Amino acid sequence: MNSLLAPGEPVTVHSPAGTVVGRSTGPVRRFLGIPYAEAPVGARRFAAPVRRGRFPEPYDASRHGATSQRVPLFATTTVPEPSVPGDDVLNLGIVAPAPAGDRRPFPVLVWIHGGAFLAGSPASPWYDGRAFARDGVVCVTVGYRLGVDGFAVLDDVPTNLGLRDLLLALDWVRENIAAFGGDPDRVTIAGQSAGGAAVLALLSSPAGDGRFHRAVSLSGGFFEGSGGVGFLEQLGRRLGVPPTRAGFGGCPVERIQRDVLDLRDERGVGQLMVGPVVGDDLLPVPVADGLAARGRDVPLLMGATGDEFDSGAPDATEDGESKEDAAGRAAGTRVTDTLFRAACPRAAAARRDAAAGTWLYSFEWPSPVLGGAAHCVDLPFFFDVLDAPGVTEALGPNPPTDLATAMHADLAGFVSGQEPSWARAAGVLGDTAREYGRPGTARVADTTGVFDPVVRTRPEAARTC
């Protein structure tokens, strides 16, 4: 069967946005590819998102919608990330429990995918919310504009269009999710990598106030960009157009994405080409400063993998490690520690006095395929989908199911309103954090000093997402 098509029998929901027809399989209902905004094409391409009008006829939500990604970030990615053609890229999918009599509405998880703000796909089978639905959580996956279309700074173009897309999606959730069994007063935003960075940006933004109630950042960080001004000039020369709204607007999205990725390869994969921009109405101050002032009533759960970009087996010879290997390992360690892991105590320190609290975790289980707890390997454990396509290729044939059960339970509990059982973090040496899967210890263990500065010696990851 087409992996983009939801299994099961038709099921109909009547929402404020109109009638939506999805698919039901036992206790799980799926409603995929629901547009929350008008397609960003033509005059709307570099404009603020426009709320989608009420569907005049029943909307077929039986398959994943179009993706902003036209070109994957790498030829081989850890996370399976299908590109789906079409213009209606501002859509969302809902995986919800079947109605359960008169019980109260279910808490809601809104998931933001990663991909360096250049790529990624909400249609990934690793983001299937079936385990959350099983555990009484409505899971919503959101598509948003990426790359130049989502985050470039251009004259006469609103900044941070990708974040504006996400905010409009959250408005759609607030207004419609009750029809799908969700509680609009218990919404958690969560994301990984660039998605985790987007979570922190929204938590720090005055525009985020009241739109969500809890936040989870997996391998996120403070990924603010400059809007790619110098990079956009290079891109314009490559495309043969001026680096303006009119110039880029006349180029197909796919062509722009291909040239952006080619430039990224030339400039160095580790460089962030675009990302949230500071200095507008959404992000008036840097994200870390915003976290110190806003979102004080929003509990935050934040963590990283133990190796991120410094996993993998070194290519050593009998004479020892080559200079090239050593340089690659050092570069991966810098990215791991400065971009991802250091963000955890930094966010906790910014929120030290927040009444809602901050909790940290570290995912330490080493994939035998990738040679460590690499970037993205925690995702099938978070979603408890170890049987999903691509998991064996990334994690080997026997990833620990008990670890997925434990990690997913902690996350589902947090989304449902529970306070984590380990101590809050304050961004100081010796903070407590929960470790998942460290070799030689219990599958789940609470310890101190996990994010204290350390000398790391693991080599660079072979693949990324």
TrEMBL record:
Can you name this protein? Answer: Carboxylic ester hydrolase
Q: Where are the transmembrane segments?
A: none
- Residue ranges annotated for the Carboxylesterase type B domain, each copy included: 12-319
* Annotated family: Belongs to the type-B carboxylesterase/lipase family.
Spell out the Pfam families in the cross-references: COesterase
This protein's species is: Streptomyces cellulosae
Per the UniProt entry, the Enzyme Commission number(s) are 3.1.1.-
Q: Where is this region: Disordered?
A: 1-20, 304-331
Enumerate the InterPro entries for this protein. AB_hydrolase_fold (IPR029058), CarbesteraseB (IPR002018), Carboxylesterase_B_AS (IPR019826), Type-B_Carboxylest/Lipase (IPR050309)
Enzyme class label? hydrolase
Kindly give the PROSITE patterns that the UniProt entry links to this protein: CARBOXYLESTERASE_B_1
Q: Does the keyword Disulfide bond apply?
A: no
- Which key words tag this protein in UniProt? Hydrolase
